[in-house]
Amino acid sequence: MPERKPAPQPPAAAWVGMRTLLHKEVLRFWKVAFQTVAAPVLTAMLYLLIFGHVLEDRVVVFEGVGYTRFLVPGLVMMSVLQNAFANTSSSLIQSKITGNLVFLLVTPLSRWSWFTAYVGAAAARALSVGAGVLAVTAVFGLPTLTNPAWALAFAMLGAGMLGALGLIAGLWAEKFDQMAAFQNFIIMPMTFLSGVFYSVKSLPPFWQAASHLNPFFYMVDGFRYGFFGQSDVSPWLSLAVVGGSCVGISALALRLLASGYKLRH
Questions:
Q1: What is the distance between the alpha carbons of residues 10 and 31, in angstroms, rounded to a whole number?
Q2: Which string of DSSP letters, residue by residue, matches 115-140?
Q3: FRET pair for 254, CA 20 to 30 Å: which of 3, 51, 123, 205?
């Protein structure tokens, strides 16, 4: 006789399962908030103090915008991206190595429940860190949002995209050094070469063209537009690139979850 497929999970039960997993993932980083939230805020502030002090009177990027003010949105977005990736990737690789992932595999949670819970928790951590950096810079009277809707849109898309990318990395990696390689050789270079500390217009033509192939550049540039109403490229182009990248990476993550890639063996 052909194998019977399990009956679909009722919507109410699916919602409870997803909400429970989301709650667990949020608690995972919030119980060590001093490490997962406060430490990244401190790191961003050190970047701001050092680079701002050294380059404030030497670098002019946008007209009427000092270098320290220019730097703040880039540091906020860098913190959002790095922490969104770190949350999902570290959670999955720890669960795989310690062996407790089996407790999730025996549940009837759908791929959408897994995806929503993990990426939702990553976005919560990322936005908490970003809000912390903004709150500290506000004490010094640094930049205000002129277009908050744009800034919020790019922050949420960036957090979602890097949360999904962290999910892919966590599924792929089988040990901590593989995860470290992914972060050090892909995420870190793409973040630092995205215009966090400079305008790409100041680069030679070749490196300007190379920067425009980096989707992280469009996240940072679009987010900065929300602060100053100025950017290196059109915010609509940035929104299209970031939105398309987010959809593509999310679709890949969902496909891997549905296939049980490196989970069911």
A1: 32
A2: HHHHHHHHHHHHHHHHHHHHHHHHHT
A3: 3
Can you tell me the distance from the alpha carbon of 128 to that of 213, in angstroms, rounded to the nearest whole number? 28
DSSP state of 200: G
- The span from the CA of 218 to the CA of 246, in Å, is 12
Tokens of 88: 């999902």
Separation in Å, CA 185 to CA 79, 80, 109, 190: 17, 18, 33, 9
**pLDDT value of residue 4:** 40
Using the structure block, give the residue that is written with the tokens 């679909």.
Answer: 8
- Tokens representing residue 239 in the block: 């929104």
Condensed to tens digits (0 to 9), the pLDDT of residues 125-150 reads 999 999 999 998 877 666 678 899 99
Position of tokens 């995420």?
A: 187
Its pTM stands at 0.90
